[in-house]
Structure formats: C-alpha cells, structure tokens
TrEMBL record:
It comes from the Bacteria. It comes from Streptomyces pseudovenezuelae. Gene3D superfamilies: Tetratricopeptide repeat domain (1.25.40.10). Coiled coil: none annotated. Pfam families: TPR_12. This is Transcriptional regulator. Residues 102-112 have a biased composition (Low complexity). Residues 1-20, 91-124 are annotated as: Disordered. Residues 1-11 have a biased composition (Polar residues). InterPro entries: TPR-like_helical_dom_sf.
Length: 468
C-alpha cells in the first residue's frame, strides 16, 4: 500500500483504532455494513464505492477523516451525530498530505481520506492498483476473509494502469490465470457471489491485457485464451448469481467470442451452458432451450457424459419455463441417463460442482417451475441432504428451494423451518439469488403468520433484511 507523504520533520505515528465507528457497525459484517453505506449514498444522490476493505481501514484508524462524499453519507446514516461522534478527526487536522488519483476509473477519484493541500473538495485515493489486485478475492460476511495473490496477473494490470507495455506472457502468467479461476470458483462455492463480483473484475482485465500483449509460445497463447474465457465465465456467473443479468450476459458473450476465435469447443460449450442458465433465470425460456441445444451439439465430440447430463438439465429448465412438461421430462430422462454413465477423464475441470446433489437441485427447480410442488420438494430435500458440507452456498440454495416448495405446496410450518435454516447460513453466504428466493417464500407464508413457526421465520427474515 502507498504510504502517505510526510516531511522530514514529521514522524509517522501508528493509527488509533476507531472504536466509535466499530460500535456503530454493530453485528453487521464489514461487507454488510459497506452495502448499507452504498444504499445510503444512493438515497441522497451520492456515489461511493464503499467495500469491506474501506470499512476495515476506517475501524483500524487508517482513515482519520472521510472525504466530503462519505461525510454526507455517514451523517445521513446517523442523523444527529457529528464526525467526532463517529470517531473521526477534524478535517483541518489531517490536511497537508496529498495522495494520488485512482487508476480504477480514468477521470474519477475515490478518496479514502482527505489529505488535501489545495481545494478541500479535491479528494484522492491513496492505495495502489497492485494492492487491489492482490486482494481481488477478499470477501466479508461471516466467512473468514480470504485473499489470493495473483502474482504475474498483478504485474500485468500494474503495467497497463501505468501506461507501460505489458510484457509477453509465459507459462507463469498462464498458470496464475488458471489459478485465479480456481480461486474464484472455490470462494463462490463457500460464500456466494455478492462479495466477490466487483473484485473479480480486476484479474479479468489483467487476463485480457495479457492476451493483447501476446505470448512467447503458441501453447501458452492457447492456455491464455482458454483461461481468459473461463475467467470471463466465472465473473459472469458472479454477476448472474448476484442479480446483475446484463453484466452476466456481456461476460458470457465475451467468453463465447473467445472460444470461437480459437476454436475451443470445451470453452464454447461452457459459455452456452451458462448462457442457457441465465436465459432461464431472466425469463427467456426459449432462448434457454436454444442455447442448451447448441451447447450439446458442440459438446458431443468432447465425450463427457457428465457434461451432456448437465446440458440436458439446462434444456429441461428451458422447457419447464415454456410450460412444456413433455419436453422437460424427456430432457430430464436424458440427463439422468448420461449421469449414470459416471465420471471420466474427459469431464471438464469446471464441472467439479456437478454431482448428485446438483442433479437433484436442478430437477427440483424444473418441477417447481411446472408447479409440481410435492415432487419439487422431494428433490430439493435430497439435494440439500446429499450436498458436500464445504459447498455452503449450494446447501443454502437447495434449502431455500425446499422452503419455497413446501410453502407453496401447503406445508407452511415445514417451509418456515427450512427458511430458518437458510437464514442461519446467510452469515456465511452472500447470494442475491438466495435472498430473492427467501423474500418470495416470506410473501407466500404471510397469510399463515399466526402459526408459531411461520411467525418466527417472518420476524427473523424481516430483521435480517433490515440489517443487510
């Protein structure tokens, strides 16, 4: 991290933790509190990119006084309080030092403190882009903060941000890119997409900077193209799962273009697979069917039965959205038939999430879409029971599906109990998809609020929404 400029007569002093600000955060995680700051900013027409890192720096005392935008937001959030009440020093006491403009968005500034020597409305950022990249996968919530060093990827983005030529990539850069994809998938499996999406954009930019620079060997270039495409899909999935459908569509299209540019059938099948899933969630079921069928055509030469099984499930989801029960059932039978052929060495690495639990979960979604709540609940329950405990996000997803199916199928008490289990997991999982499902379940259960189990769920759900 860049250190602040001091004169020779000055000696840096260790920061004093801001305990007052920490108390105001209360039981919310840094990521949850940062989300509340961003919402408050929108309420008053401000724009701040507050994240868990910023909250941590404030609480550690590294930010002695916020800039003017943050000041307005904080005073809006805590009416009647002054900056001093929030644990900050006066603006006058922190003047005399100047940071650097941010490199994230040309022409804009995202200041973490006001250390201005000229116009007090002119504010600056004091962190380095390389530090942002090294922390690209940090996530808050109840989960342990996780970070991944991206090594050569960080160097690529540092060079591009500084306007220097990016050197041609070698095996080290290709390996770092492949590891970045694995890290994102691992953290998404455990914690959900919401805390990861913005941070994952930095390594994606670095990946395409490496592609632009070229590679030392053709084999390395092929690895870079494949890795960049897979990273685009991973970032697209984070956007998808956090409700940013337009962003997801753009990332998937980027991956598809990369696949076709290099003739990479495996990458093309993966891009079509995710496009089909997105189309279903976005209310375009016919597009979901077409994309899933295109994926199956591309994937057949790859000889992966598990991949063909998943793609048949994507097609089934589209048919369910079209209310075509026959088409859905036929696709489900194909999915089960392919799945029973077992694993093989030709299965793509990214399919590590796809096991019996996911098969059951996706089938549950199909029956739910068709309005067969009893059958949907049976498959959702099996999915939650079968899921590996390390896949916290999927356990929460399947249990949320179960809660909704039970609630709609005339079992409000059981639905509420399942909903409470999901709420227990939300300290570890950040997924807009799951939160949206729970909100829908709460609306279904509202007419049954006098039942003790239902009232407990509704109260807990309302409380969680207020503190999110």
């Amino acid at each position: 991290m860049a250190s602040s400029m001091v004169t020779s007569s000055q000696s840096p002093t260790p920061p004093r933790p801001n305990l007052a600000f920490r108390r105001l955060r209360g039981q919310r995680s840094p990521a949850e509190f940062a989300a509340a700051v961003r919402r408050a900013a929108r309420e008053i027409g401000e724009s701040v990119s507050c994240d868990a890192r910023y909250v941590g720096r404030v609480e550690a005392g590294e930010i002695r006084c916020p800039n003017y935008a943050y000041e307005r937001v904080f005073l809006h959030m805590f009416p009647g309080r002054t900056l001093s009440d929030l644990g900050f020093a006066s603006r006058a006491s922190v003047r005399g030092r100047r940071g650097r403009p941010t490199t994230e968005t040309p022409g804009t500034y995202e200041p973490y403190d006001t250390q201005d020597t000229q116009d007090p409305d002119e504010t600056y950022d004091d962190y380095e882009e390389s530090d942002v990249l090294r922390r690209a996968f940090m996530t808050g919530g109840g989960a342990t903060v996780a970070a991944a060093s991206l090594g050569p990827l960080g160097l690529a983005l540092d060079a591009k941000a500084a306007g220097r030529p990016v050197r041609r990539a070698g095996t080290g850069e290709a390996g770092a890119l492949e590891e970045a994809v694995r890290r994102i998938r691992l953290l998404d499996d455990r914690h959900g997409a919401d805390g990861l999406y913005q941070r994952a954009a930095a390594p994606l930019r670095a990946a395409y900077a490496l592609l632009d620079a070229g590679a030392t060997r053709q084999t390395t270039a092929d690895r870079l193209h494949s890795g960049a495409g897979e990273l685009a899909i991973s970032v697209g999935w984070l956007a998808h799962d956090s409700g940013r459908f337009d962003d997801a569509r753009s990332h998937y299209a980027e991956a598809l273009a990369t696949a076709r540019f290099t003739g990479d059938d495996a990458l093309e099948a993966h891009a079509f697979c995710n496009t089909a899933f997105l189309a279903r969630d976005a209310g375009r079921p016919r597009e979901a069917v077409r994309a899933a069928q295109a994926a199956q055509r591309v994937a057949r030469p790859l000889r992966s039965a598990r991949l063909m099984s998943l793609l048949a499930l994507r097609e089934a989801g589209g048919w369910a959205g079209l209310a075509d029960r026959t088409g859905c059932e036929q696709a489900l039978v194909r999915a089960q038939t392919y799945f029973e052929r077992g694993l093989s060495d030709t299965d793509p690495e990214w399919m590590s999430f796809y096991g019996e639990a996911e098969l059951e979960g996706l089938e549950a979604q199909c029956w739910s879409t068709l309005g067969d709540w009893r059958r949907a609940a049976r498959h959702a329950r099996r999915a939650a029971d079968l899921q590996d405990p390390h896949f916290t996000r999927n356990i929460a997803l399947y249990t949320a599906e179960l809660a909704d199916d039970l609630a709609r199928g005339g079992h409000p008490d059981e639905g509420a109990a399942a909903g409470l289990r999901v709420l227990e997991l939300l300290g570890e999982v950040q997924s807009s998809r799951i939160q949206t499902m729970l909100a829908a379940t709460a609306r279904v259960l509202l007419p049954h609020r006098r039942a003790s189990g239902v009232s407990a769920f509704l109260e807990r759900h309302a409380s969680t929404r207020r503190t999110a």
